[in-house]
Amino acid sequence: MNKKDIFKLAKESRFIPGIYNYCDYWCERCLFTSRCLTYAIDSDDISDSAIHDLNNETFWNKMQSIFQQTAEIIIELAKEKGIDLNSLDMNFASDNMSLQMTEADNHELSKAASYYAKMADEWFESEYSLFERKEDEINTMLEIGIDGSLLRAKADSINDAVEVIQWYQHQINVKLLRAIMQDDIADTEESDNELQNDADGYTKIALIGMDRSIGAWGNLLEYFPEKTDSILDILLKLDRLRRKTEEHFPKARKFKRPGLDSIG
After folding, report:
1. Which end of the chain is more exposed for a tag (fewer CB within 10 A), N or C?
2. Where exactly are the structural domains of the chain?
3. CA 20, CA 13: separation in Å to the nearest integer?
4. For 8-20, how does the pLDDT look when each residue is reduced to its tens digit (9 = 90+)?
């Protein structure tokens, strides 16, 4: 898709402005792909599976093409808005960004989120055989004639739980880092009159990820009661992170994401 097509597509009324700013990027499970400009642009070449192969030259060529188109769009939009891109103090911006990132990394929420992600990784690595045994168990029951639909539903439920956990486990920290950095920026700017801010928006995504992950771990707990102790340990850490996050960002739950929480 070229630059002209992107501008033309962006003018279509079916798209919800900014819906892609506060999402979890899980397009396969999203109910609003038909109203998302980013999805429409990305899906232009979605049938070419090679584009999604990180080891394939086609993928990186596509990324370079998107970068060039985006750079041109930025220049044109800057001209329209009278912004002089060359006037920015990039050295200061770079140093300031590095400082903000360091401070965000050392924030208690970021540390807790990073620790949770590590716990999840270690749990799945150590319990890999657990899922193999469960698969063998389900296959054996299928062979002896036990209701296949119920067994397949059980297998799907386990797979869904694993997918949810692994989708959000690292994203939670990424979103919290962005929230913490935006919160620091807001503290230095006059933003008291803003009804909503980016920090709360990013935090809400992180909280949704925590909520869904807690539910998914609870699902695994039901299917693997012999692992109650290790799963409960993870759940306690994640629930504490959720509570601490709500305490630090008390308005995040009320943040209205365009389209996802309210059409507008």
Report:
1. C
2. 3-88, 101-254
3. 15
4. 777 788 888 888 8
